[in-house]
Amino acid sequence: MRIDETGKITLVRAMVPLVIAIASPLLLVAGAPIRRRYLRHIYREEAPVLVDKANGYVSIHYFVSSNQLGRWLCAPTEALIRTARGGR
User: Which of 25-42 are b and which e, b meaning 16 or more Cβ less than 10 Å from the residue's Cβ?
Assistant: First the structure.
């Protein structure tokens, strides 16, 4: 989405926390594997960049991947996975 489309960006910024809150039960139970898979998908080699300042482009994935609420909801399962793997 173009940076100069401020209405769309504002709408996405407002909707991302709402969608994460709706998905919170799932994220609390299985958040870490879902988040890891999603981050691998958006940061893969052939993926478009999240923020392209030269062309004035920002991806919706930027707002999802940088949302603090999503990180907090995935923290319990992340801690369980870390404990099960012996702290690795």
Answer: eebeeebbebbeeeeeeb
